[in-house]
Amino acid sequence: MNTIKYEPDLCTGCKNCYNACWLDVIRWDEEAERPIFAYPEDCVECNFCEISCSEHIIKVSPDFSKTWPETYVASTLNKEIPAPSETPANPHSHPAE
Q1: What is the pTM of this model?
Q2: Where would I find the H helices in the chain?
Q3: Statement: 3-66 belongs to CATH 3.40.50.300
């Protein structure tokens, strides 16, 4: 699982990280006026929260040992790719007369 660390004592409560997270990994604690990294297992390492933090107090550490969801794997990787022909056609050549 990804690790998302931040320094709550340095957080200004600007909500930039909360607004940047398009996957709803980050929730907002209205009482504490601080983010809650509620679903780090859903994080896709886009780092938008880290980049958008004006105080630079968020660090996203990806877990490279996790498997990628099937939807992330390009369908062409699972298919046999045909070999190129030995003499590729040149679109700029003129036909032989």
Answers
A1: 0.65
A2: 16-20, 48-52
A3: no
